[in-house]
Amino acid sequence: MTGGPSNNQSMAEPLAYRVLLEADPEDGGFVVAIPAFPHAHTQGETVEEALANAREAIELEIEVLVERGEPVPAADANVAIRIERVVVTAPAA
Predict the structure, then answer these.
(1) What is the rounded distance in angstroms from the CA atom of residue 83 to the CA atom of residue 18?
(2) How far is residue 3's CA from residue 21's CA, in Å, rounded to a whole number?
(3) 23 pLDDT exceeds 80?
(4) Whole-prediction pTM
(5) Less Cβ crowding at N or C end of the chain, within 10 Å?
């Protein structure tokens, strides 16, 4: 039998990536950074919209990398995340 995908082909494994959502106090909504794809940035009015936009940005980044024959970043959603606040004092003018 020829001409189409075989029934034995498996679907690609899903990849899970960390996304960082930060509230945007000036414009409202959320700004999204994707550590595995540092050039991909997006935003959304709600968390749900921001996550959907992040998914789309990641899919587009992966598509471009595959087309170029470049490696796709490893999934990183299992990496522990710790967020801290650092306070500094600006020098006097």
Answers:
(1) 13
(2) 44
(3) yes
(4) 0.77
(5) C
